[in-house]
Write a structure and sequence with these properties.
Helices cover 50% and strands 4% of the residues. With 96 residues, the protein is mainly alpha-helical. The chain has a two-stranded antiparallel sheet. The chain starts with a helix and ends with a helix.
């Protein structure tokens, strides 16, 4: 097998069929386990505080979020924002 690899005679695998079946499965039955996708403004309205409070206090305290690139926008999911997060935001804003 190693000799075949050196001279470029390894058989090429065809994975396009597998990828297309997998893509069809994901498009046919989308999963909504995390709820609706939210930006920082929508997440702050759901929690009941400002976007600044979300960014500066709740995210460092562990509010679940995603950032797909180092400077990309923050993405939250509705089902990950719990009543505990809402209570924490109320406690922060009332003590300030």
């Amino acid at each position: 097998m190693h000799a075949l690899k050196q001279i470029g005679l390894l058989p090429k695998l065809r994975v396009t069929a597998l990828l297309s079946v997998r893509a069809e499965e994901t498009h046919a039955s989308p999963r909504h386990d995390l709820g609706a996708r939210l930006d920082i403004g929508q997440a702050s309205r759901l929690i009941g505080c400002s976007g600044w409070t979300v960014r500066q206090t709740l995210i460092p305290r562990g509010l679940p979020h995603f950032r797909f690139t180092p400077r990309g926008r923050l993405v939250f999911y509705e089902e990950q924002i719990t009543p505990v997060d809402r209570e924490a935001a109320r406690a922060i804003t009332s003590s300030a």
